[in-house]
Amino acid sequence: MGDTRISILEVRQRVERRTGIPSDHVMVTATHAHSTPETIGFRSLLNRQGPPNGSNNLPTVWRRLWRRPNQTLAPMQLRTVKGRIDGMAASRRPLGKDGKAHMRWSQPRPEEIADVGMNDPEATVLCFQTEAGAPELVMIHFACHPVAVQAQPLISADFPGVVTNRIQAAEIGCRHCFYLQGAAGDINPVRDTKGFEDVEYHGRLLAQAVMGLIEQTTTKEQPAAPQNRPCRRDTVLLPSRTFQPWLLWSASYPNGEIWQQMPPPAAERAMAEANLLGLSEVMERVKQSSPFYEAEVHAFRIGDIALVGIPGEPFVDFGLQLKRGSAAPTTLCLAIRTATWGISPCFGLAQGGYEVSLGMWSVVGRNPSACS
Fold it and tell me: Which among 101, 147, 160, 279 has the fewest CB atoms less than 10 Å away?
């Protein structure tokens, strides 16, 4: 929530005091919507008109949640169902015939593309049902960046807000619906016009599919998960990505200031300003460099379900590897948990593209042990 805001440790401690739930059993994760108050000092966003900074209200929001009385707790059965959702998400890094990533928003020509890129169209729905069979709590796990709208003056929960509101309003007994972000560091919605009509479109598409999956948990014999709830937290060291020394970057900065002072045409001046902003991001990243970064991995096991929370935005191949390599029948990667170390590729550094360009969004390098 930002170094000077409310810490995850504080959240865990307060939840334990209020509810008796051990702090080690408290995981905080985010949907990663891109049109929200800026809370972590992301430099490039500070230069845009965005929503007002609401991070000072975060402690109040948290207190409302952990003050809810324990008397509302009741026995639940967990039932899980999976389904494929096509037409919702796609890789934003198609591989060109030149061996380089061609960012999808640059609209590469079809004849330039050798591989459309990885994707994970599987949605997993966790239904916590009452003794009467009502899905009182629903968790939706899916891998897709909520970037239908971003970096503009209005606050939006993006498509996760639409899908969760629709499920709660569907008169099926769902009181709480959460969206769990998967490994979506390189996955975007299929429609990419950056308009609120796309927020509604993707939210409605996902909600319709999820409603069908929820219905399967009530009409078919779905086994309830066992009651064992083991939990473990561990810290690993992730190596920094490599880059040229500070002096080489700082030597270019005066030239950038000169470019910014260029006379019209306006298009060239705007390009110079963008180049200078990009260079300042690079310099800030180099200035804040560290050989290694601590990353906390947090895992829960609920019967056949394993929830694994990691910081940052892993590429989709990380989530797929986790699913295939885990001993649990169903393993879900929960991204953007606790602190974030930016986009975390298991591959792709040599292919280039936005995600692996040098900036505050690209902190760690490829870590073979973390990707295996």
Answer: 279
Encode pLDDT of 338-369 as tens digits.
555 666 666 667 788 888 777 767 777 765 44
Rounded to the nearest angstrom, the gap between the alpha carbon of residue 102 and the centroid of all alpha carbons in its chain is 22
Alpha helices in the chain (DSSP H): 8-19, 43-46, 58-66, 158-168, 196-219, 246-250, 253-260, 266-287, 316-325, 368-371
315 located within any domain: yes
Pair 184, 33: CB distance under 8 Å: no
Q: Are residues 276 and 168 in the same domain?
A: no
284 in helix, strand or coil? helix
Euclidean distance between CA atoms 312 and 325, whole angstroms: 20
Residue where one domain finishes, among candidates 253, 270, 287: 287
Residues 184 and 252 in one domain: no
* Domain of 251, in residue numbers: 244-287
Dig out the tokens for 314 from the structure.
Answer: 């892993």
One domain for residues 140 and 33: yes
63 Cβ contact list (under 8 Å, min separation 6): 14
Average pLDDT, the chain: 79
Residues 269 and 359 in one domain: no
Taking the C-alpha atoms of residue 313 and residue 356, their distance in angstroms, rounded to an integer, is: 12
Asked if 93 and 230 sit in the same domain, the reply is: yes
Do 134 and 273 fall within a single domain? no
Where residue 372 falls among pLDDT bands split at 50, 70, 90? very low
In a domain, 185, yes or no: yes
Pairing of strands 313-314, 330-334: unpaired
3-state secondary structure labels for all residues of 148-217: CCCCCCCCECHHHHHHHHHHHCCCCCCCEEEEEECCCCCEEECCCCCCHHHHHHHHHHHHHHHHHHHHHH
Three-class secondary structure of residue 318 per DSSP: helix
CB 237 within 8 A of CB 292: yes
In degrees and rounded to multiples of 5, residue 160 shows phi and psi of -60, -35
- Residue 248 and residue 171 in one domain: no
How many domains, the chain? 2
